[in-house]
Amino acid sequence: MIIGAIEAGGTKFVCGIGNEDGVISERVSIPTTTPEKTMTEVVAFFEDKGIEALGIGSFGPVELDQSSSTYGFITSTPKPHWAQFDLVGELKKHFDVPVGFDTDVNAAALGESLWGAAKGLDSCLYMTVGTGIGVGALAEGKLVHGLTHPEMGHIMVRRHKDDTFAGRCPFHGDCLEGMAAGPAIQDRWGKKGHELEGSPEVWEMEAHYLAQAIANYVLILSPKKVIVGGGVMKQKQLYPLVREKVKEILNGYVQHEQILERMDEYIVAPGLGDNAGLAGAIGLVR
Amino acid sequence: MIIGAIEAGGTKFVCGIGNEDGVISERVSIPTTTPEKTMTEVVAFFEDKGIEALGIGSFGPVELDQSSSTYGFITSTPKPHWAQFDLVGELKKHFDVPVGFDTDVNAAALGESLWGAAKGLDSCLYMTVGTGIGVGALAEGKLVHGLTHPEMGHIMVRRHKDDTFAGRCPFHGDCLEGMAAGPAIQDRWGKKGHELEGSPEVWEMEAHYLAQAIANYVLILSPKKVIVGGGVMKQKQLYPLVREKVKEILNGYVQHEQILERMDEYIVAPGLGDNAGLAGAIGLVR
Q1: Is there a smaller number of Cβ atoms within 10 Å at the N or the C end of chain A?
Q2: ipTM for the complex?
Q3: Under an 8 A CB cutoff, do A223 and B147 touch?
Q4: For residue A47, what is the enclosing H or E element?
């Protein structure tokens, strides 16, 4: 089967062709500018590929309720030009094939459960820590939507005792994203993450926030695997710091060997690397 | 169909007989003492009822993994005599019928979705604020188990600015349960909740903690309805306080009319009152 896949991000649309086993044979990256320009290029890429289905994982917020008149729309994004854009509708005009649609992070969670770090599990989280913080969730074999879709990047967290940074989320100030996404690191320390590699206090503080969030996710969703990726996590020293702090916070309360003894297999990097989103988009149409 | 139902709590086992429509025709309350004494009475109650199936919602932690050798056990509870007790196994010895088993709060969430405040919805939370704080979750039509089962009562919360109480969770000190369950109220203020009815500062502080937790649950699970019950919520003035603070915390970020405009229908008391758990236990075998 020839499946088209789109990972629609705020910076770029990654488009690819794959099969039902998640094998990707071709991919291109198209800058996210205006819907008109970007979509013209996206449509041109798929036009002669003979796709039989199309899967889309998109930045959000998006409308996932199939009974809604705005199903398939990117809704209230602050990104210029893209608010209330009918992403699925626009593609349906050009391709008369079944379409699967979900958030970028839900797609990545699905991709990881099909072919990546959570392979074979019916439950996992996919967290990306970059320009923003987003988390997708697979629970009991299904991607979690609910009322809208999870927005776990915006949960409230306790401040680090040495942190005087005000936070930069326009909605919540010092929520998780406001304190721990890439731009918060840059604003707080005056340098980009990769320039701060040799400053342990930076990563101790970052791990403080990420571990709190993950501990709460574990207590609330009880995922079988927590996958953490995104630009900020290129700082690999974060993984052991985060694992240790999650264990400290839970303090033996969740009695499962994964958490008590095998934390290094529980909180992990994406198994599919940068392909999680694209593979997940393929998974959405399976 | 004659269905036996058990709501197994740390204080009492409520046993009942109902049908597949959740109509309860008979119920008794049996004190939770030792497994031997309590179970003898439970078995005696059901013995001549001709039950064709048995549903059990239990205090926990419990083992829900059907492939585990300890499936159906109450596991690491601090409650004397009950740790590692094979609840399902003991009942199976006496009743050769299909058994449904889950946590008490998951059962209540299911009951509310079948016949109560979340009727017809495929997603809801059931939160009980009493001696402890427990939350059950239905997501995408399924009760959430995952690795073990959710333990949402133990998430980290931000302290209220005027609160010097240390918290009383033996695992986490000032987690949600440590700060906001009934015994925390009593320890902090030196009186029981019902004696503090006329003290608005008590309920403002209590709402501060509950609203934070609910806002996090909404961001993480995106439930279609949040049902809050339990002894502490007999203080009905808490409901509007909690709703208002959840709205303040989310600050317009989750753009759904339920949250923006109809919060009084979104965060609600149990539709089944004190029968949610028992009805949910019936639901577990449907």
Answers
A1: N
A2: 0.95
A3: yes
A4: helix A35-47
